[in-house]
Input
Amino acid sequence: MKKLYLYPLWLRVWHWTNATLYILLILTGISMHYSGSDNPFIPFKTARLIHNTAGILLVFMYLDFLINNLFTWNGKYYLPQFKGLPNRLYLQTRYYLFGIFKGEPHPFNPDEKSKFNPLQQVTYIFVMFVFMPVLIISGLFLLFPEYAPDKFLGIGGLLPMAILHTVVAYFLTLFTIAHIYLGTTGHTPASNFKSMIGGYHIITHEDHSKKEKD
Amino acid sequence: MRIKHKLLFLFMFLLFSEIPVIIAADHEVSNGFCLRCHGMKTLSYRDSTTNAIVSLFVDSTKFNHSNHADLNCTDCHTEEGFLQYPHSPSVKEENLYCTQCHEASEFKKFNFRQREKEFKKSVHHLKFGDKFSCFSCHDPHEFKTTFSEAIPKKMVAEDNIICLSCHDAPLQLSKLTNEPYHDLITAHQWLPKAQLHWKSVRCIECHTPATGDVYSHEILPAEKALKNCETCHTKNSILFSKLYRFRSKESRQKTGFFKTIVYNSPYVVGMTRDPFIDRLSILIFLLMLAGILAHGIGRWLATRRKLR
Output
C-alpha cells in the first residue's frame, strides 16, 4: 500500500472552511428565499447576519484559493487537458452509470500529474472560474447595493444581481450535494473523506494492477 | 379756504387713519389678488405669544400644481376679516379642518372621518394635542396626492420628506417639544441598510399598524413600530397591501418573476419570487436526491452481491 501526498495542509484547511461556509450559506440562503413569519426556518435577522458574515469569509477563501493555486504546484491540476477529453469524459460517466455497479476499477486514478478525473476537471473549472466569480460579484453587489449598476441588460436596480446570485447559488448547491455523494465513491465510502483530512491518497492494489496493465 | 382746509384734513385723516380698505364688496376676490402680498416670500409676522416668526407666504407655483389648485383662496378662508386690508385680527381665530370640506361624497374613498379617528390615536395627537393638526404635515397650499403617480420610488421620496421635515430637523422639532432629539440613524441602528430602506419604502410602512387601513394615519410611537423583518420580507409581504398597492394597474395585475422583470418592479428579498420557478427548482432538487439514493442503493446491493 502506497501513500501519495496530494492534499497539502493549506488546501485541506481551505477545503473544509469552504465546506462549512457553503453549508451555512446554503441553509441561510434557502431560509431567506422562503422567509415568512408563519414558518421561520431561521429568523430572517439571524439568517442575514450569518449569510453576510459567511459570504464575506467566502470571498477571502476564494482569494486564498486563487493565490495558493497561482504560487504552488497545485494550480496545474486545474489546467484543462483538452486532448481526448470527450472520450475520457465518456469513460468516467460510463463508470459512474454502469461500471461502478459491476465492481470495475476506476478509469482514472489520482497521481502526481493529474489529481482530478475528467468529470472533475471540467466541473471544477466551471465551478471555480465561472460560477464562483459570478456568485461573489453578484453577492457583493447585494451586500453593497449602493454600488450596483442602475441598469443591467435593460433591467434596473438589484433584480438582475439577485437573479444571478440565486440561480448560480442553486446550481452550486446541486454541485455541493453531488460532490459530497461522489466523495463516497472512493476505495471505501469513507476513504476520500479521510484523504481530505489526512492529506494522503492511499494507492490500493487495484490502482497498481491498472497501472501495470497500462 | 375753510372748505379747502376741511377737505385737506379729511384727506389726511383718511390717508393715515386705520380705517380699513374694503377689498371686496360685491365681487369675488381672485387668487391673484391675494397673492399680490402672499406671493412674497418674505411676508411674515412675529407671533406675540410664541415669539416665533410665522410665514404667510404661499408658493403660487406649488399651489397651482396642488390638489387644491382649482379652489379660490376665499373658498376656505371665509372669515369676513379677510375681505378687508389690513385683515381684521379676528382672522387669527380662523380654525380650518380638512373634514370641513372633505365630508363630501366625492372624497368618500379616502374616508376622512376614519382618518380623523386614526389621527386621534396617533402619537402626534396623543403627545401634542391641538398643537398638532392635519396642516402640521399636509400643507393645504401644496398638498398633492402622490399615489396617483403610482411610481413607488417617487411616492416614497415625496411621502418621506413630510416626516423628515421635522424628524430630520432638530430645530423644527424643538418648536414642538423639549424632549431630547434622537437622530434617525441611531434610532434605526437595528435596521440593516437603513438609508436604503428609507429610499425604497415609506416611513409609514412600519410606523402605522400592519393590519391598518392602507391610508392609516395612526402613526405609531417608535417602540410600537414594526420591527419584524418577515413582515415585508415574505411572499405575503405587507408591502403589497401598503406601498405596492399604488403601483400602476398593469404591474399590480402581473405578479410573478418574469413579469416583475418586465414591469421593472423593485426587488425585495423573500418577496420577489415566482411560484413556478420555485416548484421547478424543488422538483429538480428532489429528482437529484432520488437519483443519488437509487445510485447509492445500487452500489450497496452490488457490493453485497460481490461479497457473497
